[in-house]
Amino acid sequence: METQILSCSCEWLELARRYIEEGEVVAFHTETVYGLGANALSDEAVLKIFELKGRPADNPLIVHVHREYDISPLIDGEPPYAAALRRAFLPGPLTMVYPSTGKVSKYVSCGLNTLAIRVPSSPTAQEFLKCVDLPIAAPSANLSKHVSPVTARHVYDDFNGKIPLILDGGACSGGIESTVLDCTGKVPQILREGLVTREMISSVAGECGVYHAQNGEKPKSPGMAYKHYSPRCRTAFFNENELNEAVSLYKEAEKEGETPCFLCESDVCAQLFGFRTLDLGGTGEVMAQRLYDLLRKGEKVATLLIGIEPKQKGGVMAGVRNRMHRAFGVEHGTEES
Prior knowledge:
This protein is α/β, with parallel strands linked by helices. The chain folds into two domains: 4-177, DHBP synthase (Alpha-Beta Complex); 234-327, Threonylcarbamoyl-AMP synthase, C-terminal domain (Rossmann fold, 3-Layer(aba) Sandwich), CATH 3.40.50. It has ten helices and 15 strands. It has helices spanning 10-21, 43-53, 80-89, 123-132, 152-159, 198-205, 243-255, 266-271, 284-301, 317-327; strands spanning 4-7, 26-28, 35-39, 62-64, 94-99, 114-118, 136-137, 165-168, 179-182, 189-192, 209-210, 234-238, 260-264, 277-279, 304-308. An eleven-stranded mixed β-sheet has the order 1-8-2-3-7-4-6-5-9-10-11, with helices on both faces. Strands 12-15-13-14 form a four-stranded parallel β-sheet, sandwiched between helices. Helix 1 crosses helix 4 (123-132) and helix 9 (284-301) runs parallel beside helix 10. The longest helix is centred in the last third of the chain and has 18 residues, at 284-301.
């Protein structure tokens, strides 16, 4: 199979629509990361996503729809706070989990009685979703556990010859996946941190909790696996107070013929002059935007990628720190913001 990377146009949108109707999988740009999309109403198409990604069968998918799509047939009720959150943040990087009516493929929710729905703000995503006018199940367009893709080339690197089409919308501006919010209870609960923060949700809903998974519990949301978003090289991780230990490991690795590299925020990069570094930036928004791109660059330029935990916390940094913890295999990757 030839994999084409094409910019969004009437001609290519029509091609994408035909592929979706034929049960194929199409990758498309969103404001967060690229998605690997298939018809959420088709068991066969949804199962193809799991097969292509090598995704565990208990890891649920998110359904994407355009801004005018009527989700009422898909969900079994909506609390008032959820309607207010939709008005405040959608289209945008917020996924909302509702009680499901079971209209989509049973494989989307992996046996759960809920359905996660997102309305992306990316113009490419909106045009694609309007053209197909179907609920599209779409996890991130990367092989399972690999770093999520924020460019069409990243998708191509993982799926060349495996999918027919990548709709190229440029680099993703958000850089980490959407916030996933459980809207099935009296109070919304964050299942996965992202660009829509706990503080932002609380300002609309009045309050907001953060869910902490128990050992052995079936995932309620994508991105809850312990090891996730991982670069294909050896990794190590240190907190901001362990910089001397990190430097010692770097020097030891270099003596043994390895090519180590640091991944850290701008202030720490300045302290590591003369060492190989990848600069995450100085703000939460910039770090979110750069993280996955730098993890993918790191696996190409380094045999050992050494992550230094950012000093900043709260807001968007809850999502950034969560992704870094999981990318580097650090336990307790979900934290209170």
